[in-house]
Amino acid sequence: MKIALMDSGIGLLAAAAAVRRARPDADLVLSSDPDGMPWGPRDTDDITRRALRIARAAAAHRPEALIVACNTASVHALPALRAELEPGLPVIGTVPAVKPAAAAAARTGGRVAIWATPATTGSPYQRRLIEEFGNGTDITGVPCHGLADAIESGDENLITAAVRAAAELTPPDVETVVLGCTHYELVGNRIREALRGDRPAGPALQGSAAAVCAQALRRAGARPDPGAAPTGNLTVLHSGRMAALPEAALVYAEGRLLATAGAEATAVGR
Fold first, then answer.
1. Does one domain contain both 203 and 223?
2. Which PROSITE patterns does its entry note (predicted)?
3. With contact defined as beta carbons under 8 Å apart, do 72 and 40 qualify?
4. 188, 165 in Cβ contact below 8 A?
């Protein structure tokens, strides 16, 4: 079995690691666009062109499913990707986990925050999500200035500063934080610690990696098998070119997992 993932950068690592843990025997294709990132400031037509380019590069490796592990691409390019690739290749988009966060808040009466890029916070897209799935929950949008770029760089100081700045914009009584950018899952522990305050565990975090992994396996006609032999290969594509995992990926546990598991089967990026 082979699963492909696409993103502008290393935000796909969280979902890729979820697939690797669920199916250690699955081959993975990671297709990103370092030549064109960041995608956030681009318009819909430009994002769609770039997303189609790296999706085609991934599709050439004949995966059983393609995860669009990028909120920006899912908002702007998902219809075009599905129109071109489905039904031959199932395409799984990524949506911030507002619905499960609101459901949990309804049981506890707690508040929810959505950490997202400044372009997404307050956008019609995010407002629609809240209106459709918020179920009347008190939801605060938190613009995370520079956090995705800091995570992409792997620079510890930049990450710390960006997380701290977003934490200062987050109401102190928030019980659940929706991670509205796939990059943010890579620093989930830092986000929780920054928001912990006097609480022993800090707020609950709602990401999307586990959900898109489960959906990709379903669409590929497979089931989780964490005990499978770790024989899965790793192929890395940068703007369509064969490459290796970027050094910044190895800052994160998810990147190290993929590099180690991939190296056991074949050399990374070869």
1. no
2. ASP_GLU_RACEMASE_1
3. yes
4. no
Express as a percent the part of the chain with pLDDT over 90. Answer: 82
Distance CA 103, CA 117 (A): 23
Reply yes or no on whether the pLDDT at 267 is more than 60. no
Could you read off the pLDDT of 2-22 as tens digits, one per residue?
999 999 999 999 999 999 999
Please calculate the CA angle 72-78-82 and round it to the nearest 5 degrees.
Answer: 160
Provide the H-helix boundaries in the chain. Answer: 13-22, 44-59, 71-85, 98-108, 124-133, 147-153, 156-168, 188-194, 209-219, 253-265
Digit-coded pLDDT (tens) for 33-85: 999 988 888 889 999 999 999 999 999 999 999 999 999 999 899 999 999 99
Q: What does DSSP say about strands 27-32 and 241-243: parallel, antiparallel, or unpaired? A: unpaired
- Name the pTM for this structure: 0.92
User: By 3-state DSSP, what share of the chain in percent is helix, strand and coil, each rounded to 5?
Assistant: 45, 15, 35
Residue 63: cis peptide before it, omega within 30 degrees of 0: no
* Pick from 88, 68, 62: nearest CA to 5: 68
Q: Identify the domain containing residue 172 by its residue range.
A: 98-207
Residues labelled as active-site residues: 70, 181
Tokens of 176: 């659940």
For residues 155, 156, 161 and 164, what is the CA-based torsion angle, rounded to 10 degrees?
Answer: 130
Contact 65, 92 (CB under 8 A): yes
Residue 270 lies in a domain: no
Residue 238 sits in a domain whose CATH number is 3.40.50.1860
Q: State how far the Cα of 30 lies from the Cα of 81, in Å rounded to an integer.
A: 16
What is the number of domains present in the chain? 2
